[in-house]
Amino acid sequence: MTETSDKLFGAMTEGRSPAEASRALRKAVSERILVLDGAMGTEIQLLGLGEDDFRGHRFGACECHLQGNNDLLNLTQPQAIEDIHYAYAMAGADILETNTFSSTTIAQADYQMEDQVYELNRDGARLARRACIRAEEKDGKRRFVAGALGPTNRTASISPDVNNPGYRAVTFDDLRIAYGEQLRGLIDGGSDLILIETIFDTLNAKAAIFACEEIFAEKGVTLPIMISGTITDLSGRTLSGQTPTAFWHSVRHGRPFTIGLNCALGAAAMRDHLAEISAAADTFVCAYPNAGLPNEFGEYDQSPEQMAKEVEIFCEEGLVNVLGGCCGSTPDHIKAVAETAARYKPRKVPTIAPLMRLSGLEPFTLTKEIPFVNVGERTNVTGSARFRKMIEANDLPAALDVARSQVENGAQIIDVNMDEGLIDSKQMMIDYLNLIAAEPDIAKVPVMIDSSKFEVIEAGLKCVQGKALVNSISMKEGEDAFLKQARLVRSYGAAVVVMAFDEQGQADTLERKVSICSRAYKLLTEEAGFAPEDIVFDPNVFAIATGIEEHNGYGVAFIEATRQIRQNLPGAHISGGVSNLSFSFRGNEAVREAMHAVFLYHAIQAGMDMGIVNAGQLAVYESIDPELREACEDVVLDRKRDDGVDPTERLLELAERWRSAGGKEAKAKDLTWREKSVQDRIAHALVNGITEYIVEDTEEARLEADRPLHVIEGPLMDGMNIVGDLFGAGKMFLPQVVKSARVMKQAVAHLLPYMEEEKRLNGTDERSNAGKVLMATVKGDVHDIGKNIVGVVLACNNYEVIDLGVMVPAAKILETARREKVDVIGLSGLITPSLDEMVHVAAEMEREGFDIPLLIGGATTSKVHTAVKIDPGYNRGQTVYVTDASRAVGVVSHLLSEETRGSYIEGVKADYQKVAEAHRKGERDKKRLPLAKARANAQVSDWAAYEPVKPAITGKQVFEDWDLEELSRYIDWTPFFQTWEMKGRYPGILEDEKQGEAARSLFNDAQAMLKQIIAEKWFQPRAVIGFWPANSVGDDIRLFTGDDRKEELATLYTLRQQLTKRGDRPNVAMADFVAPLDSGKADYVGGFVVTAGIEEEAIANRFAKANDDYSSIMVKALADRFAEAFAERMHEKVRREFWGYAPDETFTPEDLISEDYAGIRPAPGYPAQPDHTEKTTLFELLDAEATTGVKLTESFAMWPGSSVSGFYIGHPDSYYFGVAKIERDQVEDYAARKGMPVAEVERWLAPILNYIPTAAAEAPAQAAE
């Protein structure tokens, strides 16, 4: 902005001080629900800005690609940004967010714009302020500017390297400094408040809060702070694993004006998480959800009216004080939200009890119902020689097991201390806490950061996202040093333990203990800003029974000091290092445990509510030998005995007697279940997936039974029924069920020879089952992981499963079904042509007179397709869409039950009629353009300014036996868990409250097999890539044999979106991203086929034959991941080397998952080009079958299934999109261009047709004839 505009801006904002704005804001929020604005990015996209628009005049010479850096528009297109702010203000927004979500040096480094950060933020705030002033001049309504701090593109709590969980790409101080620079600009630009938003990692938010305190002090102002987290999936946790309440506990020290949630979820999915925060928070609550959830093309379809209706429940239930919109919302959405909010009163801020509230990944609140908090002491090098040796040897995995054991044994907080002379305490504290953060079963509890060196404490505080406890600070260096440390602890958001230690030394008498704690309490509450409930006093536990008379009263002095502190210092807590008490009895664990139990019994009664103890070695007071207990009480309470015997001497005498009970060994493997009956042992093995003893237990059961069959129908099925019940109740997950099936199969395999012999002798086979199910992947499709999982689950529930495998023709399915007299047929498929094949199978079942149920499942199937396309063609029987394996048993049992079959089928039919009608209505309501108009609205690029890069290689290049270990670093694990029907994103799913344990077990098994695959080279990944001179002509891409572009090599045919677009968004086709022939630009297109290797099928079959379905499914799932990882790695090599249009790209494998790089690799058969037949051209160009071994089936599925193919397009403006539904005019045009009959094109494009083809419409009539 110019000097003149600076002066004008100053005149316009005169009289608006931060204090006055804060008062006005708080007054407004107490009177009504305030409205926050909507998405900035959505509105910017509608502007259709190109690279030159983002650069402006100022950054025209910048070497970096700048399109997409929305914050830069504050400097290059300020009027456009101001107008967006103004539109939201006039739509009803009370608070306007600055366009500074990514305006930190960390995020701007991607664009080489770090030097512009101050100006981006200052001008961003000024633009929002100017829009406020314009709106206020128009309607007189006061508005406020919220300076937006985004989460950055780094995470301080999670390693970006799956192989190095302790690594961090960014530190707390990196973030603190970056946020500080951003805040200076936002404050100077006139922000009324600060919004720390879209928090996926709470440690990042804590760094932002710390920076706020620093910059507020520097600037001499204090602005209200809004804090908004984001729940990343239906697990109900942030990406870094915290629950909503744990998140609130972690940031509460920032005294936020509002706390709440935004982004990630639509309003409907956000409601429960918002209610949790609303119930917990004693401040105002803000919510600004997305406009629903993105569709399969990443677009937001929710209308303003729908969004307003969904957020209305927030208002009705009194959950919010501030309401707005995030991704996909527009001024129209905010107008509807504002109108809805105006009808309701704001949420009343609750008064909450003054309780200590800590957090790890989960919240911990010290209520009256918790009489004593166990702080695990074994992760302390000064208290555990075993732990110290692990740390000195840098054996951190073993050291993590110690922490895990403490939590498993009941520690509600773990004390971490690294103070040892030969250890770099500060670095080790950082390393250990970073590793703990990667272990959800440990990180769920809060951490007590324990050190006598404050620099170590501070380093630890910079590593934990939860609310920690600091152990400890004291007044031994005087009040000034004490207050300085206390204020820092509070700024990091921790509670504090204060030692009874002052300038004169440690307090050892009752009077000194109470006096020092009282003095510290006054300083902390009146000068350091601590709430009393965040203060813990340690009045010093000293060793007793040492033989020194002065020490005899230490125990009772602590207990009495505890009583007086709790009475006179309200809210404060008491803790102590309990093991210090028995220091003189080292080596005699039995006596030490008894002393601790006795001491705690009396100290807890006096008010001690926390203690550093070995959570696995606490004796129960009542269970202690009476004689030993009495002797311990004599020394703890300093009681004189009637017989005149010295209590210490008596305890020493007893100690000798009890010494044999000391030196306990490490916890042995729990095999107590092996002592139970054989029936119970078999059930235990099935539920826990233990194969180790199943053969011997099955043999024992066979010898006890009259017949081998009775073992299956008895203990084995009893155990599997338990598995089924647990699975149905959500207490077991698919990977665990598949492990159970492995145990079952091995047991049955042992019994089979005996059963065959019995059958031979008697001529009978009487085994009963719940029903017979035939399953098959339809003709042309090779994918079967999901089908196999369903088969395992059904088999576990006593259904006989006949699995015909993959690529099964309709005739074989029906022939087998009739011969085997099956009760149900199940069809599976992954690729879209399989949908048409399923329609065909259903029609054949109708024609041949079948009336048994038909189940439909697979990645591309849906209830809508089943109801609209499959079900109407099979009237004699019922077609049922099965969403996942967990539903299969319920569906089959209902269909085969005499009691429930009728009502269940009636319900399904009624549901499908509604679904079909809603689909028809929805399609009628969607406006689609004629092809000519869609082409007129094509994506237009500035071809004159674009200089295509010539690939470093042309023609094709083959790669064989690519390094598996390298590819493993590129694996995206989220789809792996989805294969096993576990919903959630990796790594957050490992911390999920419900399925985290199962997810971790599955992941560990996957890692074990992954290592074996790599070490033994199970797969031999192969690839072929190629590049060709290319130009677009209309909707087609022509490939040429040479750079003279005289001879055509092939044509790639593309399809164009016909859906009516909002604003001026284009109707895209893939051809739009390739330079037109008449542009004179020499452009290029690439292609690829990669496979994990043809070895996958044989390996999976070996496991299946060994009755190990779990490993069979696992190897296929990992092969799929290798194929996708290979595609990702190859695309990276293409961008940087083989084509070389992005040679300086520096993405990590984790970054690549988000696909933020330049260029795309669209695959035939997927949304950007739904026509699978285009694979034929690709495979011919690359000679793919000969070079890689990958083959195309008659439905254009690739064999082996763990293969990926597609095209490479390098234009920087290219992006992934979905063609969606198309009309007859485009199908006829496309058929003419390809030289194919219209009916054949309609067959391959059936899933995206927005009309019923003539042949299909006539088919029922022909069948009737």
UniProtKB/TrEMBL annotation:
Q: Which cofactor does it need?
A: Zn(2+); methylcob(III)alamin
The UniProt entry, under Pfam families, shows: B12-binding, B12-binding_2, Met_synt_B12, Pterin_bind, S-methyl_trans
What does the entry list as the binding residues for Zn(2+)?
263, 326-327
Give EC number(s), comma-separated: 2.1.1.13
Coiled coil (residue ranges): none
Residues binding methylcob(III)alamin are 713, 780-784, 828, 832, 885
Name the UniProt key words of this record, in alphabetical order: Amino-acid biosynthesis, Cobalamin, Cobalt, Metal-binding, Methionine biosynthesis, Methyltransferase, Repeat, S-adenosyl-L-methionine, Transferase, Zinc
Task: Look up the domain of life of the source.
Answer: Bacteria
Q: Where is the B12-binding domain?
A: 770-906
Domain B12-binding N-terminal positions = 669-763
Describe which pathway this protein belongs to, using the record's wording: Amino-acid biosynthesis; L-methionine biosynthesis via de novo pathway; L-methionine from L-homocysteine (MetH route): step 1/1
Q: Which residues form the AdoMet activation domain?
A: 922-1254
One Gene Ontology cellular component annotation held by this UniProt entry: cytosol
* Residues of the signal peptide: none
Q: Which reaction does it catalyse?
A: (6S)-5-methyl-5,6,7,8-tetrahydrofolate + L-homocysteine = (6S)-5,6,7,8-tetrahydrofolate + L-methionine
One MF term from GO for this chain?
Answer: zinc ion binding
NCBIfam families per UniProt: metH, PRK09490.1
Summary of the function given for this chain in its UniProt record: Catalyzes the transfer of a methyl group from methyl-cobalamin to homocysteine, yielding enzyme-bound cob(I)alamin and methionine. Subsequently, remethylates the cofactor using methyltetrahydrofolate.
Q: What does the UniProt entry state concerning the protein's domains?
A: Modular enzyme with four functionally distinct domains. The isolated Hcy-binding domain catalyzes methyl transfer from free methylcobalamin to homocysteine. The Hcy-binding domain in association with the pterin-binding domain catalyzes the methylation of cob(I)alamin by methyltetrahydrofolate and the methylation of homocysteine. The B12-binding domain binds the cofactor. The AdoMet activation domain binds S-adenosyl-L-methionine. Under aerobic conditions cob(I)alamin can be converted to inactive cob(II)alamin.
What's the name of the protein?
Methionine synthase
Q: Per the UniProt entry, what species is this protein from, by scientific name?
A: Aurantimonas manganoxydans (strain ATCC BAA-1229 / DSM 21871 / SI85-9A1)
**What does the organism's lineage look like at the top?**
Bacteria, Pseudomonadati, Pseudomonadota, Alphaproteobacteria, Hyphomicrobiales
